[in-house]
């Protein structure tokens, strides 16, 4: 039986329904969703899901894509077109499509809306309920695996957006102990008050940046001392220099943190030298 999906205003054959490659849901997990149970073609716990949808959208500052009445029509029409009597209807709303960049896209960028529906046999659920099912415990790591370069970047984009709204370029995450972990899309470094280079070790829960790794080789070649150890926000405020690294950003000087000048408030000499060395090496060795 042919299935149908609603995508941004039109009903399309399920197998052909697509969102743009730069949809922020796909690029950053920058979206929210709801699932309603369907009984005899009718939506269960309607208000609860609709209220939570609005709350989720509001928390993430994603525009409400359409009125409750309009959305209800779309949900019902998707259920109808898929001939779902019993099953679920799935709704996803993302921050829309824009050139990949962590901060929010320009105001007015329309959110993406997709709706799908599928039938679930009540008999199967009943059989399961009769016997009961097993559960397995798992460590709650949601999402404690920042070492994996996953597209689940919602916290990162919220941090980047907060930085941009505060007139800063990058956000540096700080852990429970007041120690800097990494940037929202970069690795964080300082030249500490004693002139020693410092960046957090990657045993910790951060992404092992490729730019960071190449820079470490250059640092060694230069005979500079590197301490792979976490530093606090206070250490940054006392530091002589600070910078961050990433593909595209290379080595970018940070001149203030939370409004406090770092060093003399200008890009430092070690930072600029490392930037030059990194760019030379990267250009030469790019294949
Ligand atoms: N970001 N940490 C995070 C959270 C990152 O997203 C990135 C890169 C880095 C640096 O990794 P590398 O040096 O390998 O680029 C560290 C990319 C550039 C991005 O999301 O656009």
UniProtKB/TrEMBL annotation:
Key words of the record: Amino-acid biosynthesis, Aminotransferase, Branched-chain amino acid biosynthesis, Pyridoxal phosphate, Transferase
Record EC number: 2.6.1.42
Pathway, per record: Amino-acid biosynthesis; L-isoleucine biosynthesis; L-isoleucine from 2-oxobutanoate: step 4/4; Amino-acid biosynthesis; L-valine biosynthesis; L-valine from pyruvate: step 4/4; Amino-acid biosynthesis; L-leucine biosynthesis; L-leucine from 3-methyl-2-oxobutanoate: step 4/4
Catalysed conversion reaction: L-valine + 2-oxoglutarate = 3-methyl-2-oxobutanoate + L-glutamate; L-isoleucine + 2-oxoglutarate = (S)-3-methyl-2-oxopentanoate + L-glutamate; L-leucine + 2-oxoglutarate = 4-methyl-2-oxopentanoate + L-glutamate
One family name in Pfam for this protein: Aminotran_4
Gene3D superfamilies: 3.30.470.10, D-amino Acid Aminotransferase, subunit A, domain 2 (3.20.10.10)
Statement: the UniProt record of this protein carries the keyword Cytoplasm: no
InterPro entries reported for this sequence: Aminotrans_IV, Aminotransferase-like, BCAT-like_C, BCAT-like_N, Class-IV_PLP-Dep_Aminotrnsfr
GO biological process: amino acid biosynthetic process; branched-chain amino acid biosynthetic process
GO molecular function, one term: branched-chain-amino-acid transaminase activity
Cited function: Acts on leucine, isoleucine and valine.
Family recorded in the similarity comment: Belongs to the class-IV pyridoxal-phosphate-dependent aminotransferase family.
Name of this chain's protein: Probable branched-chain-amino-acid aminotransferase
Lineage of the species this protein comes from: Bacteria, Pseudomonadati, Pseudomonadota, Alphaproteobacteria, Caulobacterales
């Amino acid at each position: 039986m042919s299935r149908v999906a609603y995508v941004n205003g039109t009903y399309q054959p399920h197998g052909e329904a697509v969102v743009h490659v730069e949809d922020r849901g796909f690029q950053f997990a920058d979206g929210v969703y709801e699932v309603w149970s369907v009984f005899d073609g009718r939506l269960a716990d309607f208000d609860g899901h609709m209220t939570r949808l609005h709350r989720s959208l509001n928390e993430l500052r994603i525009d409400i894509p359409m009125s409750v009445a309009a959305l209800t029509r779309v949900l019902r029409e998707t259920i109808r077109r898929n001939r779902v009597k019993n099953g679920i209807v799935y709704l996803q709303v993302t921050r829309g499509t824009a050139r990949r960049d962590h901060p929010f896209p320009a105001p007015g960028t329309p959110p993406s809306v997709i709706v799908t529906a599928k039938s679930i046999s009540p008999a199967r659920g009943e059989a399961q309920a009769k016997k009961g099912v097993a559960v397995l415990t798992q460590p709650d790591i949601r999402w404690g695996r920042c070492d994996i370069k996953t597209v689940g970047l919602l916290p990162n984009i919220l941090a980047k957006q907060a930085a941009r709204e505060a007139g800063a370029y990058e956000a540096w995450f700080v852990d429970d102990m007041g120690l800097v972990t990494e940037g929202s899309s970069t690795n964080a470094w300082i030249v500490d008050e004693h002139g020693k280079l410092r960046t957090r070790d990657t045993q910790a829960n951060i992404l092992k940046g490729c730019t960071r790794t190449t820079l470490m080789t250059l640092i060694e070649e230069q005979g500079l001392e590197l301490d792979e150890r976490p530093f606090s926000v206070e250490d940054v405020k006392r530091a002589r220099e600070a910078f961050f690294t990433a593909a595209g950003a290379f080595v970018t000087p940070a001149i203030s943190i939370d409004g406090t000048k770092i060093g003399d408030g200008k890009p430092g000499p070690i930072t600029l030298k490392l930037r030059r060395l990194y760019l030379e090496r990267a250009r030469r060795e790019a294949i």
